[in-house]
Amino acid sequence: MKYKLETIPVWDALKEDSECLLCFLEEKIEDYYLNYYLGSSVMNPETRVKVNQQGFCSDHFRGLLGKNKAHALGLMTHTHLQETLKKLTPLLKDLNKQGTKSSQKGGSTKNLEKTTAKLKESLFSRTDQCLVCQGIERTMRRYAFTIAYLWKDDEEFREAFRKSRGICLDHLPLQLDLGAEILKPRELGDISQVLAELTQQSLERLEGEILWYTQKFDAQNAQKDWGTSKDAHRRCIQKLIGPIKKA
Q1: pLDDT tens-digit map of 93-116
Q2: Are 154 and 162 in contact (CB under 8 A)?
Q3: Cα separation of 169 and 91, whole Å?
């Protein structure tokens, strides 16, 4: 698969010196797509068809609500609800029918169970096809590809990456997978070694920082310096699970 290079955003993310440059990029991407679907695209027929059919997961519907663009969100939600109603009405009618049959004396739940399974599959698929999630996934693969490409061809990037805090545990598999797609065995071995070292160092550093964070709540430590631990709980969670919402 061919990917478009995104060198400038990757360099900018690396210079942020965050716990994970891919987390930094993912937050930017998510914000871009939330704004995109609430912008002029809301009147684009092709986009509206996708929104009507696929919609958004619960997290990204909440994200759209948080943008406070009620009119655009209302337009999208209305037509998406119409499409959802069209899909679910036959299943809900069948659920009603089979529920009625099963509730009768001597009734069997065999057909009810089949109908319930179909309904559950339809309901679960709504979150699996979230347009924002899909956009983030596509773009994140481009960014991970770019990191591997820069590692392959740019000595300055390799040096800067070695001095970074590495990548969170959530994004580490993605980076290793994209590295395996384009790097030669020696190059893949080199970046894998660096990723392993950076991850180990980061986890050990964060363990010490969050320990001091917890100890700062002891009265005898109240006047002592926080050092680098004041936001250790947030950075530790980010390293474990990936991007987190800012409070």
Answers
A1: 999 988 888 888 777 888 899 989
A2: no
A3: 40
Total domains in the fold of the chain? 1
In this predicted structure, the answer to whether residue 43 has a pLDDT above a threshold of 90 is no
Closest CA to 226 of 217, 237, 235, 234: 217
Q: How far apart are CA 157 and CA 160, in angstroms?
A: 5
Q: Supply the DSSP symbol for 163.
A: T
Q: What is the C-alpha to C-alpha distance for residues 147 and 14, in angstroms, rounded to an integer?
A: 10
Q: Is residue 185 part of a domain?
A: no
For residues 169 and 199, the answer to whether their CB atoms sit within 8 Å is yes
In whole angstroms, what is the distance from residue 119 CA to residue 125 CA? 10
| Whether pTM exceeds 0.70 | yes
What's the CA gap between 39 and 82, in Å, rounded?
21
Identity of the amino acid at 241: I
Residue 87 located in a structural domain: yes
**Domain residues for 57?**
30-133
The type of residue at 235 is R
Cα–Cα distance between 246 and 30 in angstroms, integer?
Answer: 13
Q: pLDDT digits over 189-240, tens only?
A: 999 999 999 999 999 999 999 999 999 899 999 899 999 999 999 999 999 9
Q: Which amino acid is at 68?
A: N
